[in-house]
Design brief:
The protein is α/β, with parallel strands linked by helices. The chain contains 7 helices and 10 strands.
């Protein structure tokens, strides 16, 4: 399995501030000076109540949005100051993202293997490369390579989504409530897949309300009122 770049942390945030003007003169702070470093190979659970800033931070880490101030360094690139076009390029080359609903991560007309070939193409890699097959083996999905999403269980779909996001591999994979739509009985399989992926050197930040995710993660980051309140193993 190819490992992601380990020259320095996968992610460094320093003094990140993000606020929203919901109407003229009414500015709501979402992030208030967030400092965060995530090393390669870390599986971090990002937790906190609704309104704590998790979703805002996730959007910034996924290069969907930019902070008002502060620094966000992803795989050595200052994402906070990149143009929209360069953020898209960084997202394609060095980032993976997973939505909460398994079906939202996949295209219904592509098989599992075709998804991974598409992911390679998006990353600018040869469509036929060994990394996709290695990911399927790592995540226990090799025997499902020629299946369509509708032929897979919810847990299998989410493991395919992990593989799709992890082709490359990226330096950082960002996941939004990855177990939120799954039956409790299959959550463990998906989280084992995250642990296996992190062991290859990919840094993972998963926003979640699920304490089971925290128990599988190597690090738990708790947010409140736009700040990191607690950060530890």
């Amino acid at each position: 399995m190819t490992r992601s770049d380990r020259n320095g942390p996968a992610l460094v945030c320093s003094g990140v501030v993000r606020s929203y003007e919901i109407e003229p003169g009414n500015v709501v702070p979402a992030l208030q000076g967030v400092d965060l470093t995530v090393e390669s190979g870390t599986f971090a659970a990002l937790m906190g109540p609704s309104g704590s800033g998790k979703s805002t931070l996730l959007r910034l880490l996924a290069c969907v949005d930019r902070p008002n101030s502060g620094m966000i360094n992803i795989a050595g690139r200052d994402a906070a100051n990149l143009s929209r076009r360069r953020r898209v390029k960084l997202r394609r080359e060095r980032l993976g993202f997973m939505f909460q609903n398994p079906a939202d991560n996949l295209l219904e007309y592509l098989t599992v293997r075709q998804h991974l070939r598409l992911a390679a193409q998006i990353r600018g890699l040869p469509r036929r490369n060994r990394h996709g097959d290695q990911l399927l083996e790592l995540l226990g999905m090799s025997d499902r390579a020629n299946h369509l999403p509708r032929q897979l269980s919810g847990g299998e779909q989410q493991r395919v989504a992990i593989a799709f996001a992890a082709v490359g591999p990226p330096a950082l994979l960002v996941a939004d409530e990855p177990t939120g739509q799954l039956d409790h009985s299959i959550v463990g399989d998906v989280l084992d897949a995250f642990v296996a992926l992190a062991s290859t050197g990919v840094a993972i930040v998963a926003a979640t309300h699920d304490p089971v995710v925290a128990r599988h993660a190597t690090r738990v980051i708790r947010m409140r009122d736009g700040r990191i309140e607690e950060d530890g193993a």
